[in-house]
Design brief:
The complex is a heterodimer. Chain A is of the alpha+beta class. Chain A is 37% helix and 26% strand. Chain B has a five-stranded mixed sheet with strand order 1-2-4-6-7, sandwiched between helices. A two-stranded parallel ribbon of chain B has the order 3-5. Chain B is globular, with a radius of gyration of 13 Å. Classes of the chains: A alpha+beta, B alpha/beta.
Chain lengths: 547, 113
Amino acid sequence: MSENALTVLLVEDNPGDARLVREMLGESRVAGFTILLAQSLAEAKMHMESPDIDVVLLDMGLPDSWGKETIIEIVKCLPEKPVVVLTGSHSEETGLEAIKYGAQDYLVKGSFTPGTLERVINYAIERKNIAEELRKARDREVSISSRIQQTLLLGTAPTDLPWVDFVAFTIPSQHVDGDFYDFIRYGDSCVDIIHGDVMGKGIPAALLGAAAKSYVLRAHNSLIYRHKCAELPSPEAIIAQVNDYIVDELMKLESFITLCYARLDATAGTLQFVDCGHTKTIHYRAADKSCCLLDGTNMPLGFSCDDEYQAVTVMFAPGDLFFFYSDGLSEARSPDGGFFGEQRIMDIIAANACESAEELARMVFYAVSAFTGTQVFTDDMTCVLAAIRERSPESQGAGVRLKTTSDVGELAGIREFTGDICARLTSPPLSSDETAALQLAVNEAATNIMKHAYGGRTDGWIEIRVFDTAAQLTITLRHQGSGFDRDAVPAPYFDGTSEGGFGLFIIEQCVDEVSYTTETSGVHVITLTKHKPQQEGDDSWNFTAKM
Amino acid sequence: MELYSENVGDVVVARIKGDHLDAGTVDDFKAAAEPVLEKGLRVVFDLQSINFVDSSGIGAIISCLRKLNTRGGDLKLCGLSRPVRSLFELVRMHRIFEIFETSDEAVEAFTRS
């Protein structure tokens, strides 16, 4: 027996057939063969630990197993061994089926010569070696990709903000995609969330994603420098700058990036976002326990050099949720080809919004696994969940929120509420003049809602919310009366001839910022912002991006 | 909302009884002010008890001034608390009204003229 003798595991219950194979292998001229005989599947399995087996010759019809099940079982037990199936049938289909289930080749009993048998065995071994090399190379790519993903594509969510919980998670597919996300934090009250997806797959997409993510930070730094830290660069300015950096590369590579850049501002109670052809962010509103999709109008990055980007602002309240996700989730397919879809995600969120953010994320994963019938997906699913915390009863106090009717008789109560809030502010407190000015501004805004938005009706509602940070105090007045165009109201005369029209002027004099917005739900919001004097060493505007 | 008025010579001094003059109380104020304005052409509003006035309130006071002006009369104010005074200054009505600390000073200003 020569040194390079091959060990054949012959799985065959028919003694005649087994003898025939033995004889044929004995006649082989080049390499000698060592033959191990197994007469059943169970017996074959006893050899599965043996490292010496070079090839399995398998009869599909055994006393304890039949047909394709035999191949599936053997391939499972000996995944690294080449398998050649011996079929008694002349049908090509049986042979091809065998290959589909993991065999390297097949032979029809009684129709092969010793030479054919030897060649088939050698080819099967060679083919299996190549397949193994390929598999290892693929594994290496997956491992490199997943390292790229973990280190370059996925940022770290802030965990210590008192008003929001983030859960960011990836359900990796077999191949890496260019999904990425990042968080940029400003002090305690404002966080930018970047969630993007590069068209394409594999390492090129992953590298583009990593590039895009770093370009966001670069755009950020450049714009902050330009503004001399006086104000935060707007999401639309950041995105325009990022597109400027990356558009040429993307066009050269014939790729593009969809992305949502969202700024979550606790002080204003707003999410301001620039959507560039990305999946539509889901907004769960605690107030009406329902979800809506946030629509954007911008093109993906890489489509055009001089795109103008537009931001959309929505208000949020304690208990609200924002869910950002890649199309790997919304376009996950069931075995019959249907999409998982946005509606299912919204239904899960709306039904389980009271759960913790982690639990909610798990539920989404369970649901998509159940829908697709697998836990191995063709696309990465990258999700970021931002859950605005409910205020605890202690921090809520007597009224961080006040809801009243649109009756002008409520104004005294509204002023008292405002004064009470100002008195309870911690750092730094407002002076009595500042408090009076704020009471006046809120009073005027509420009066306008009562008299104009509700047209004097007393059965409307007004909700007042207060957001306090070290940098500013923000008061929002929400209502469902008619909307309002500030520019349509002329300035009053100050010569004694005007008896009205002072309200808006007073508001604008009493606070630093006034804005009039409308939420997608149709609720109108007047936002009054009063900046607090900045103390030395105040770091609330410091740029603290985390990589 | 009530106005207690008394005549000091030919000056009508009206003390406005109430805590605040806003959109919720302004109609009462207007109704109460109407007969007071009929009592004379020289009127003083004493706002001593009023802690808060908003744009509706200031509009109503301007309206009283204009009514008196059209009849050749005048309205002076006194007893403005700090936030009320601030509002008058904010909408520049301190240039339209003569404002005094006390009703005596306001009455005296009328009798001098």
